[in-house]
Amino acid sequence: SYAKNEAISALDYRLVLGDGKAIAYEDIAQDTTISLSFQEQDSKTLSSAIRLASSLEIKETVSSIFGQLYRHKMPLDRYHVFVMELMLSLLKMMEQYQIDSKAIFAKNFDPYHPLKQFNSLVEFEKELTRICVAISRSIQEQRVHASKAVVSSVMEYIQENFANPTLNVETI
What we know:
It is built from 6 helices and no strands. It has helices spanning 2-12, 14-17, 40-52, 55-71, 76-96, 121-161. Helix content is 62%, strand content 0%. α4 packs antiparallel against α6. It is mostly helical. The mean pLDDT is 81.
């Protein structure tokens, strides 16, 4: 029974250590003193990268955030909490920019149980990077659309008021 529990516990850790590897129970000795969470600064850094950075910089930011997870051996529930906090941050950003989740998430991806469909954190990191890049593109498309709308309304205003002698750049 004790060996069975060790084997089940080691198997659960394939999410952290990767699938297809032999995992010894000793390899997953957990540090229960570590309380890692997705901090507000992590959220700001990721949000800034999504809004302003290139795809490569987004990948580097996600990689840096996941580096925290790879460095520590925590109880599995703490990994799940960290990832859920991260997903909540992304969902809030999508709501702020009114981004449709169907345009961002893969068909079978459940943002409320994000680790359920992945065999390892590495797999999830790749999918999360793709998600962040997709959100970034959506935000950039919104900006382009908004800029075009402003230019269009300025052009319309100029055409309507071209004969007005008081028309100037300040008025426009």
